[in-house]
Amino acid sequence: MANSNTKIKKDEKATMVDGFKNYFKGVKAEWGKVTWPEKHQIIVETGIVLFVVIAFTVIVYLMDIIFKGLLGLIPLR
Fold it and tell me: Is the model's pTM score more than 0.90?
């Protein structure tokens, strides 16, 4: 009984290993099909992202200052 269980577990492990091998073969095949952007494009798009992030940060900060000032005008009892 124990021998049949160990054989099943070995077959399951072999199947799992084959599955991993097939997966990584597929990943390697797809990796070659990827068209990578040029260095100039990466630099330009990174600059755009940084500009947008900084702009939104400044906008939110200014809104915070404005709302804090407006809420300061509300009289407390």
Answer: no
